Amino acid sequence: MHIAPSILTADFAHMGDELTAIFDAGIRWLHLDVMDGRFVPNISFGPMLIRSLRPIAEQYGVVLDAHLMIADPDRYVEEFAAAGCEYITVHAEACTHLHRTVQHIRALGKKPGVALNPATPLSAIEEVLPDLSLALIMSVNPGFGGQRFIPASIDKIRRLRTMLDERGLNDVVLQIDGGVNKDLIAAVRDAGATCAVTGSAVYAPGRNRAETVAELRQALGE
Ligand SMILES: O=C(CO)[C@H](O)[C@H](O)COP(=O)(O)O
Q1: How far is the CA of 31 from the centre of ligand 1 (A)?
Q2: What 8-state DSSP symbol labels residue 179?
Q3: Cα–Cα distance between 81 and 83 in angstroms, integer?
Q4: Is 109 annotated as a binding residue?
Q5: Using N-to-C axis directions, what is the helix angle for 15-24 and 47-60, rounded to 10°?
Q6: Measured between alpha carbons, how far is residue 201 from residues 9, 13, 81, 161, 181 in Å?
Q7: Would you say 178 is a known binding-site residue?
Q8: Mean pLDDT over all residues of the chain?
Q9: Does ligand 1 come within 6 angstroms of the Cβ of 132?
Q10: Which fold has domain 2-219?
Q11: 104 assigned ligand-binding residue
């Protein structure tokens, strides 16, 4: 089970320290929430910030995973590939030609992911599942960190796990994103997720980052 902290709720004035704190605690997967103010009602950051944190991530061998909550993401996938993202995830709801976008990311030598909003059924990705490296289930409505986990997401993870297993797609990362904390992380793992995005559970105001990471590991029985 990968723990993938999202920097959305980190202290942007001290980003270098925020990263080394979690990497020193053993984190090797970083989730980058890119928001455009159109697909979601919030604006976060873009490829420029990712380029600037890339050397620190490379020093520790950390996977950079970009979650593009942006309209018409084809316009920008090349920039995120050049910025050093290994996984590039787009939203099914934001793509007119999802299969083409997935192939575009693959052709750039990157690992394509597709995210689904809470109201979007799994059937929206069924046809592209064999082409994916990652499938992301949103367990909050995208746009903001610190929201409450939607309980129905557990069953959605289970159903996606079954779809992947039935097709022998065991290498596809099943990522869950939104409201995952120490009380929920074992349940999402048990339902079949293989990567948990944790924003405010790691980057909680005033909390020691090594301690928040250790709490999540403990909850997983590691
Ligand atoms: O995609 C996101 C919001 O759109 C964030 O990754 C997600 O919400 C993580 O933050 P938290 O763990 O605080 O919910």
Answers
A1: 9
A2: S
A3: 5
A4: no
A5: 30
A6: 9, 19, 28, 24, 5
A7: yes
A8: 98
A9: no
A10: TIM Barrel (3.20.20)
A11: no
- Given 33, 72, 171, 190, the catalytic residue: 33
> 200 near 10, Cβ under 8 Å?
no
Give me the catalytic one of 165, 177, 183, 190: 177
Asked whether 146 lines ligand 1 (CB < 6 A), one says: yes
> Which stretches of the chain score pLDDT less than 70?
none
Structure tokens at 34: 């890119």
Phi-psi region of 72 (alpha: psi -120 to 50; beta: other; left: phi over 0): left
Q: Take residue 187 and report the two structure tokens written for it.
A: 């349940």
Do residues 46 and 20 lie in contact, with contact meaning Cβ atoms separated by under 8 Å? no
Phi, psi (degrees; rounded to nearest 5) at 20: -65, -30
What's the whole-model pTM score? 0.97
201 lines ligand 1 (CB under 6 A): yes
Q: Is 33 a catalytic residue?
A: yes
Domain ranges (residues) in the chain: 2-219
pLDDT digits (tens, 9 = 90+) for 60-92: 999 999 999 999 999 999 999 999 999 999 999
Active site residue 74: no
